[in-house]
């Protein structure tokens, strides 16, 4: 092992032995001269390979060789004395210098190893380029991410890691930055597209830092792969959508069962009165007043059933209302985002365009968002089998009211239910409850607005509902 003590001193001694043989071979030419210059390489070698200790050993050994070959001439001849004294000083000096160099090179090595360990372990890929865009270093994560090994990519232009059109533009961009200082990406995280060695692309987050060293400029890019994060987000969305679905079903289910329970009483009463009337009428002569009475009672029970439904719908709409002034645009955007979160359907293009500066509306935010959520869900469901899936939503300002529009490019409202669209339990869906639109209407009406469905000129349906603006005094 090169750093081992025996190795360091051993090589110094071996070098001294070599020079001893050389000195012996040259002895007859050198006569009684010390000629210490031939020892200098030995001390240099010992100093730079082993440091101070081996350099001192080599110096002593060389002095010993001189003493051995010259005997008393070494001390009696002043020239030899001067030569030997100079060498005796030079040896340790070289040793100190060697020590220092060794230490510095070890520190540099440690720093390099430290840096490399960081480069190898940072979760972000790191790529260092120079001011011409040439890749200088490529971390282990970058290797995994882009599929290039450092041998293949270091020395190439960084634009090889980008798809067109960025690839063509990068050099110009770098040039513009160097001449004008105009920053597009330096110091700012950006979401961009990267290209792997197999030509596939992926979304990545890029942050770039700038450094200067010895008059050269370097840029370090930190790259984070967003594919994994997107996948996680998608999983989360699926989960949320399940949740929304479940809660919607539970709410609907609860409502349906309570409706069924409440309505059962008047219905069985009606049946009983009808049976009674039938029995009365079966007799040869019957009392018409009694039959009329039974029918009257049955009619009242039917009205009671209607009342129950009305009360339930009011309960759904007014339940625990918390009215507050809201910005219609933010309210709509939030609800649409929520609705899309739950929507598994991919490939729906959403366009939101609203008027600016729309006054506030005083509403129960959750309820109005529920309306939007329902309409957006219906629209997405309606477009499931359409070739064109465009959802256009927005709020516009009209006379005294905000008009919310949710337009789809689905098949349009089926003729069979068009005139009963907002009535409860009207549905064309296999598993539909048919209560969504009736609840929407109740909520909109309880806010003093209106809801209607119109055919979309380009095919599909446009649902529109209005919510009156807050009175001046009510604004927050
Ligand atoms: P559900 O969605 O449970 O059927 P809704 O009251 O929300 O209950 O909707 C009632 C019916 O109205 C649906 O079954 C469907 O036929 C029709 N409908 C609602 N929205 C749309 C739409 N955007 N496009 C076409 N038909 C629609």
UniProtKB/TrEMBL annotation:
It is found in: Membrane. One of its GO terms (cellular component) is membrane. InterPro entries: HATPase_C_sf, HATPase_dom, His_kinase_dom, HisK_dim/P_dom, HisK_dim/P_sf, KdpD_sf, KdpD_TM, PAS. SUPFAM superfamilies: ATPase domain of HSP90 chaperone/DNA topoisomerase II/histidine kinase, Homodimeric domain of signal transducing histidine kinase, PYP-like sensor domain (PAS domain). Its cofactor is heme. Residues 179-238 form the PAC domain. The chain crosses the membrane at residues 6-26, 38-67. It catalyses: ATP + protein L-histidine = ADP + protein N-phospho-L-histidine. Pfam families: DUF4118, HATPase_c, HisKA, PAS. Its EC number is 2.7.13.3. CDD domains: HisKA (cd00082), PAS (cd00130). The keyword Nucleotide-binding applies. Its main location: membrane. It is a multi-pass membrane protein. GO terms for biological process: regulation of DNA-templated transcription. Residues 111-181 form the PAS domain. This is Sensor protein FixL. It comes from Bradyrhizobium macuxiense. The lineage of its organism: Bacteria, Pseudomonadati, Pseudomonadota, Alphaproteobacteria, Hyphomicrobiales.
């Amino acid at each position: 092992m090169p750093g081992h003590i025996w190795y360091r001193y051993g090589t110094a001694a071996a070098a001294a032995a070599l020079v001893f043989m050389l000195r012996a071979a040259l002895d007859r030419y050198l006569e009684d001269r010390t000629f210490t210059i031939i020892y200098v390489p030995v001390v240099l070698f010992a100093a730079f390979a082993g440091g101070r200790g081996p350099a001192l050993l080599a110096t002593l050994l060389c002095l010993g060789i001189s003493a051995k070959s010259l005997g008393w001439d070494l001390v009696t001849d002043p020239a030899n004395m001067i030569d030997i004294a100079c060498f005796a000083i030079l040896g340790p000096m070289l040793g100190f210098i060697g020590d220092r160099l060794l230490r510095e090179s070890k520190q540099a090595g440690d720093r390099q190893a430290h840096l490399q360990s960081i480069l190898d372990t940072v979760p972000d890929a790191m790529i260092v380029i120079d001011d011409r865009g040439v890749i200088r270093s490529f971390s282990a994560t970058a290797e995994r991410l882009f599929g290039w090994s450092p041998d293949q990519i270091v020395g190439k232009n960084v634009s090889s890691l980008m798809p067109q059109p960025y690839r063509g533009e990068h050099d110009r961009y770098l040039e513009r930055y160097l001449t004008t200082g105009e920053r597009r990406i330096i110091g700012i995280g950006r979401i961009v597209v990267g290209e792997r060695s197999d030509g596939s692309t992926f979304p990545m987050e890029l942050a770039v830092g700038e450094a200067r060293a010895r008059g050269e400029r370097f840029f370090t890019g930190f790259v984070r792969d967003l594919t994994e994060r997107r996948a996680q987000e998608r999983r989360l969305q699926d989960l949320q959508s399940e949740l929304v679905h479940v809660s919607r079903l539970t709410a609907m289910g609860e409502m349906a069962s309570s409706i069924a329970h409440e309505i059962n009483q008047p219905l069985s009463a009606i049946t009983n009165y009808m049976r009674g009337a039938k029995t009365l009428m079966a007799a040869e002569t019957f009392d018409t007043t009694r039959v009329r009475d039974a029918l009257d009672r049955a009619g009242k029970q039917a009205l009671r059933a209607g009342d129950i439904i009305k009360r339930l719908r009011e309960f759904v709409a007014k339940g625990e209302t918390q009215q507050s002034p809201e910005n219609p645009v933010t309210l709509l955007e939030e609800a649409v985002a929520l609705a899309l979160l739950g929507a598994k359907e991919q490939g729906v293009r959403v366009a939101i365009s609203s008027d600016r500066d729309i006054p506030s509306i005083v509403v129960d935010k959750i309820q109005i968002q529920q309306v939007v959520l329902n309409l957006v869900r219906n629209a997405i469901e309606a477009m499931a089998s359409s070739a064109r899936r465009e959802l256009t939503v927005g709020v516009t300002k009209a006379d005294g009211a905000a008009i919310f529009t949710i337009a789809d490019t689905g098949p349009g409202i089926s003729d069979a239910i068009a005139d009963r669209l907002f009535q409860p339990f009207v549905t064309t869906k296999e598993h539909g409850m048919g209560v969504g639109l009736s609840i929407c209407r109740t909520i909109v009406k309880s806010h003093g607005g209106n809801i209607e469905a119109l055919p979309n000129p380009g095919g599909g349906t446009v649902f529109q509902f209005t919510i009156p603006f807050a009175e001046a005094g009510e604004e927050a």
